[in-house]
Design brief:
mainly beta; about 375 residues
């Protein structure tokens, strides 16, 4: 065997990114936060489950516990039920579970993904988005007690917010992703407002950029996320009748606000951001702070995955003497004897490596990598 090649098992070891910091059990990547009616309790997605905690980060506990992926939690207006989406039965469907814990109950059955958005103002139906009937996302609702889903908004829409009195709706249209910064074009995300007594909706924001995640405030004001200033999504507030007077509420400079949720009582908002994890925004004072979340828990699954690949190899290169073959598999470089035997893993990084090439003396393998940002 050539000098400089490190022997490894033929099985490839892939390591999952931990959801907790090893030294302090601090939660690293909480997602999809939601807040209950009075703002005292938050829910969030982490490690593929739904978790509950106090607004100050105390009393963290796991609400769902399954090997499937649970996400997008939402509190009922009375705070007794949490709706969420899960693929525990194959497709991503809507489920509900008591906030105190218990066996989740399934509300939708469809091969298309159903993404939980929230509840109707009176809490008797769960609102969700889906492409079950069309190629574009539409908004549906399903009874909390079970029953047939019905179309809530018969127009293409990604998300929706219903006013507390149920007389107005705000919804998002468009085809652009939130993570594409500074996009200015026909596919940008826009917010529309519709009075239930009127036939037509009105575009609430006419400036360029992405405007999305509408939420009704306690006084009828509309909160939303916009990247129109600086290319980073932040929380804004406006009167839908005077959109030109919109006011910026948060000022994150590097990472955007993600998946915000407002309490039905209108006092607090929670959102995710890579700058500090989950944040709580006090709507009365306009101040926001990161929620310190710490969890002590056992791993639900092994963090080491061993997999044997008998295909998917690409970009093979034969050594000068013809005794070995270097190749790329799933972003890493391997070498194996030409006549068969155990493979040797030569690279093991999160980056992608490819294009192996041997030196003339067969002692070195060159390859390209994007570990520095580009190949």
């Amino acid at each position: 065997m050539k000098t400089g090649l490190v022997l490894l098992a033929a099985a490839l070891a892939a390591f999952a990114v931990p959801a907790f910091a090893a030294d302090s059990d601090q939660v690293l990547f909480p997602r999809d936060p939601a807040v209950n009616g009075d703002g005292s309790v938050i829910a969030f997605c982490m490690d593929g489950d739904i978790w509950i905690a106090g607004r100050d980060g105390s009393g963290v506990r796991r609400l769902t516990d399954h090997t499937a992926y649970d996400c997008s939690p939402a509190f009922s207006p009375d705070g007794r039920i949490v709706a969420f989406s899960s693929d525990r039965e194959g497709g991503m469907d809507v489920w509900v579970v008591p906030v105190q814990g218990g066996k989740p109950r399934r509300l939708t059955w469809h091969s298309s993904a159903d993404t939980t958005l929230g509840f109707t103002p009176f809490g008797n139906r769960v609102v969700f988005s889906s492409r079950r009937d069309t190629m574009q996302s539409r908004i549906y609702s399903v009874p909390v007690d079970g029953g047939e889903p019905t179309v809530l908004l018969d127009a293409p829409a990604l998300e929706i917010a219903l006013s507390k009195d149920g007389e107005r709706m705000a919804y998002t249209t468009g085809a652009m992703s939130w993570w594409r910064r500074n996009y200015r074009g026909s596919a940008s995300l826009d917010i529309w407002v519709k009075d239930m007594s009127q036939a037509r909706a009105v575009k609430a924001a006419a400036w360029p950029g992405n405007d999305y995640a509408p939420m009704w405030g306690p006084a009828g004001e509309l909160y939303f996320v916009s990247d129109s200033k600086g290319g980073v999504g932040n929380i804004w507030r406006m009167d839908p009748a005077r959109p030109a007077d919109a006011v910026q509420v948060t000022r994150h400079a590097r990472h955007p606000v993600l998946t915000p949720s407002i309490s039905s009582g209108g006092g607090f908002m929670v959102y995710a951001c890579l700058e500090g994890g989950i944040h709580v925004l006090d709507l009365k004072t306009g101040s926001s702070s990161a929620v310190p979340l710490a969890v002590t828990t056992d791993d639900k699954e092994s963090t080491l995955l061993r997999a044997k690949f008998e295909s998917q190899a690409s970009e093979a290169a034969l050594s000068p003497d013809g005794s070995e073959v270097a190749f790329a598999v799933r972003g890493d470089i391997f070498a194996v004897p030409r006549k068969g035997g155990r493979a040797m893993r030569l690279t093991d990084t999160p980056a992608r490596e490819k294009h192996p090439a041997w030196s003339p003396d067969g002692r070195t393998i060159y390859f390209s990598s994007d570990r520095g940002g580009g190949f």
